Amino acid sequence: MSAYLFLLGGLAIMIVCGNLLVTGSVQLARYFKISTLVVGLTVVAYGTSTPEIFIGVRATLDGSHDIALGNVIGSNFANIGFILAIVAIILPIPIRNKSLGKDMAIMFGVTVLLLVFGLSGGVISRLEGIFFLLILIIYTVWLVRKSRKNSKDEVIPKPTIKPFVAVLMILVSFVGLYYGSGWFVDGARKLATAWGVSERVIGISIVAVGTSAPELIVSLIAIFKKEADLSIGNIIGSNFFNIVGVLGITAVVSPITITDGALFLNDMAWLFGISIALLLTMLPISRGIISRRESAVLLLIFAIYMFTLYR
Predict the structure, then answer these.
(1) Of the candidates 86, 87, 113, 254, which lies 20 to 30 Å from 76 by C-alpha distance?
(2) Are strands 93-95 and 288-290 parallel, antiparallel or unpaired?
(3) Measuring CA to CA, how many Å separate 172 from each of 24, 43, 167, 180, 289?
(4) CATH topology of domain 2-310
(5) What pLDDT digit, counting tens, does each position of 8-21 carry?
(6) Helix axes 50-61, 163-195, angle to 10 degrees
(7) What pLDDT is stored for residue 288 in this prediction?
(8) Nearest C-alpha neighbor of 278 from the set 22, 103, 71
(9) CB of 55 closer than 8 Å to CB of 181
(10) Pairing verdict, β 93-95 and 123-124
């Protein structure tokens, strides 16, 4: 019974805090004249990925490397095949921003880098973690500077609340999302442990979907608020941050050992596959739309992968 209470309580907190995060982020973006897409790719995406950071660091320090790595791979897979698919099935997502193509390419690039690091030596070292963090810093600075430069050509609505209030809303939402997702994952772990599955399976499925719950709540709220760029930017930005931010910080604290190279390669192949499927649904960039039919295909891929884990 306690496991279900943790699940429901965590979900309720994430719904409230997800609304705070979207509202505060959009208002802050308008104040600094930064596009909503950039806020989705940075502030919102990084914020909703904070649970993965704490879980990754805690897992590696406890020697549960499969949970730390599986959580990131599974979260990225769930962000596309479950989170984005569910959102687009409820309300199709229009793709209007041409820069999404570049952001997708960067997401692919760091995914390839993760594969290379993972296969070379069977461990993601501190040096590789530092390299991930450097990529994160450079990319974030580039995004913000580009957005400020292009803001002269964009019509950005004026903020309706004060910057201090917006920042406070974001900070409160971060704390709530961390604790809410933590409760959610704790409940999920108790259920998963009772099923007798491996740490890798727990990390890729239960923990990953649990820590991706903030992305689901935020993306749903964003799409209902007609902030499509924030919704899709949150997914792409979260996938990018999960690799360079979450794994970067985790590896710096404690190197991540890959216990089974074959299983790692298999999981990465599934991640590449669904990422390519997402790109195909977005083409042509700036005139496309992620429809319900295409989202159903993404959801089907996700379901098949989950089935292979538990068969």
Answers:
(1) 254
(2) antiparallel
(3) 10, 14, 9, 12, 33
(4) A middle domain of Talin 1 (1.20.1420)
(5) 888 788 878 887 88
(6) 50
(7) 72
(8) 103
(9) no
(10) unpaired
150, burial (CB in 10 Å: exposed 0-12, middle 13-18, buried 19+)? middle
What is the Cα–Cα distance from 55 to 65, expressed in whole angstroms? 11
Residue 89 has which token pair?
A: 């099935």
Identify the bridge partners of residue 288 per DSSP, sorted by sequence position: 95
Tokens encoding 97: 């921003």
The pLDDT tens digits of the residues spanning 241-271 come to 999 999 999 999 999 999 899 999 999 999 9
| E strand or H helix at 44 | none
Torsion angles phi and psi, residue 98, rounded to 5: -65, -30
Q: Which H helix or E strand runs over 289?
A: strand 288-290
Per-residue pLDDT tens digits for 97-125: 666 778 888 999 999 999 999 998 889 99
User: Can you give the pLDDT at residue 239?
Assistant: 93
Angle at 128 between CA 125 and CA 309, to 5 degrees: 70
* Structural domain spans, the chain: 2-310
How close are the terminal C-alpha atoms of the chain, in Å?
A: 26
CA-based radius of gyration for the chain: 18
Spatial contact of 291 and 92, defined as CB atoms under 8 Å apart? yes
Q: Are 84 and 228 in contact (CB under 8 A)?
A: no
Instruction: Report pLDDT for 136.
Output: 94
Nearest CA to 58 among 196, 8, 86, 50?
50
Confidence of residue 287 (pLDDT cuts 50, 70, 90): low
| Interval 204-221: pLDDT, tens | 988 888 878 888 888 888
Q: What is the pTM of this model?
A: 0.83
